[in-house]
Design goal:
The chain is an alpha/beta fold. The protein is built from 17 helices and ten strands. α3 crosses α4, α10 crosses α11 and α10 packs across α12. It binds adenosine-5'-triphosphate (ATP) and magnesium ion (MG).
């Protein structure tokens, strides 16, 4: 432990030896302005192509949502009965990543509906849970929901059913409509099964004051197909698909945001079009398009140039892919890295389906080389499912007639690169 006196003693020495430092009451050192390092001085003097960069960041809420009028209307239609204290139908929303699902749901429900309810004096509670980030177990989900309705829970000693009951009894304490938005619901279901959905729908029938509606959002298009039939019929009372954006639609989205994000004339002609075309080429992902534009701007600033050029979009694409894959690969546990390395060595590039059995055999050989105990085929199969969810591979189940079913996998292009190989070899010491 460092005592406060020591800190002040050391601060004194530091200030005497380095007079460019001063000390605030809080004890935090700050540099006196005139002694800023050259680098930062120059950085501050340099201009930037951005006027307001955060407009391009993923969590920024835009003030307009082009090309989603149909979906916005459909969500409004489904949730409107809540304003008359009638339970809205459960809604299941699906579409690929970056197609505006989260944005539209938050816009209509947390924004428009909540304001309309306030105005009308109707009690509507809305709870939003991102199952991937905040609750990837059943226990985690009910704890999160209970916390959001203001129920204090002891830190230990409660079972999942206890937490579930505690949440519902608190939620049922006022006459209201409760809308639970379960974003990235497929993550929770893949980890915890669909029992939580069954619990919610069954509990709903027992409540006296509150009526619950669920809005599930998923980018796994086949997600609803895997549900228990009872849960499936209840969750899919209404379904809504968000199609991918095309290049022209992405241009509109980007232009809308670019006008407040960038300084006048700091985007050369063709930049927005190229970002839109690149993002449309993959799967019409608005997040990707916005990232490309933002990173192209950041790279321009780093170079000290005054306008973003078309070529900067290529550099941005390279940087984003490199950063994403590098993070994915290097943060995987060692066993998963070995599985990926085996896939890489069998695949010889992307675009070819390979059998999971072959992967397992090679993986076992690498384990022996690395003096690691191999996981069971079952566990390796779980790792492959995880890779599938992360977009590192694409998996498909094929029937082999009377020999049962087997799974084939294909490495995604962004994982079939020399960079990934090098990162894995470095991480695994191979
Ligand atoms: N029509 C639009 N207008 C303006 N911005 C949009 C539009 N559609 C999407 N975006 C922006 O693109 C990004 C991704 O959108 P969003 O998070 O809603 O996608 P999603 O479908 O929920 O993706 P995921 O399945 O990966 O969660 C966000 O920054 C969002 O603001
Ligand atoms: Mg989302």
């Amino acid at each position: 432990m460092v005592c406060l006196e020591c800190i002040f003693y050391l601060s004194g020495i530091l200030i005497k030896r380095f007079p460019c430092f001063s000390i605030r009451n809080s004890g935090v050192f700050i540099l006196k302005e005139k002694n800023l390092p050259q680098f930062f001085e120059e950085y501050l003097k340099k201009g930037s192509v951005f006027k307001e960069k955060r407009v391009l960041q993923a969590n920024h809420f835009p003030n307009d949502i082009p090309h989603r009028a149909v979906q916005i209307h459909q969500v409004r239609v489904v949730v409107a009965p809540a304003l008359r204290l009638e339970r809205p139908s459960n809604l299941f929303i699906y579409g690929k990543t970056g197609t505006g699902k989260t944005l539209v749901v938050k816009w209509v429900i947390n924004g428009e509906l909540v304001s309309a309810a306030k105005k009308a004096g109707v009690s509507i509670q809305t709870l939003y849970v991102n199952c991937k980030l905040d609750a990837d177990t059943e226990y985690g989900l009910f704890t999160e929901l209970a916390t959001q309705v203001g129920k204090e829970l002891p830190l230990t000693g409660l079972s999942t059913d206890d937490v579930c009951s505690a949440f519902f009894s608190k939620a049922d304490s006022t006459k209201s409509i409760l809308i639970i938005i379960l974003d990235e619901i497929d993550y929770l279901m893949k980890k915890a099964g669909d029992d939580f959905l069954y619990k919610i729908t069954r509990k709903n029938e027992e409540l006296k004051n509150t009526q619950v509606a669920i809005i599930g959002i998923s980018n796994d298009l086949m997600f609803a197909e895997h549900l228990d039939p009872r849960v499936k019929s209840s969750l899919s009372e209404e379904k809504l698909l968000f199609p991918p954006y095309n290049a022209i639609e992405l241009q509109d989205i980007l232009n809308n945001r670019a006008s407040s994000a960038f300084k006048h004339s700091s985007l050369e002609p063709g930049v927005v079009e190229k970002c839109a075309a690149y993002a449309a080429r993959e799967h019409g992902d608005a997040r990707r398009a916005l990232d490309l534009l933002r990173v192209a701007g950041e790279l321009t600033d780093r170079k000290g140039a005054t306008s973003v050029a078309v070529a900067d979009v290529d550099s941005a694409e390279e940087k984003i892919d490199h950063d994403t894959v590098a993070e994915l690969v290097t943060t995987q546990p060692r066993q998963a890295q070995l599985v990926l390395y085996s896939i890489l060595n069998i695949s010889h590039g992307a675009g070819k389906f390979i059998f999971t059995g072959e992967v397992y055999e090679l993986y076992k050989k690498y384990c022996a080389k690395a003096s690691l105990r191999p996981l069971t085929q079952r566990r390796v199969s779980d790792i492959l499912s995880e890779f599938d969810m992360l977009g590192i591979i694409t998996a498909r189940v094929i029937s082999k007639g009377r020999y049962g079913r087997t799974r084939e996998i294909m490495l995604a292009p962004q994982a079939a690169t020399p960079v990934v190989r090098r990162l894995l070899e470095e991480a695994l010491n191979l």
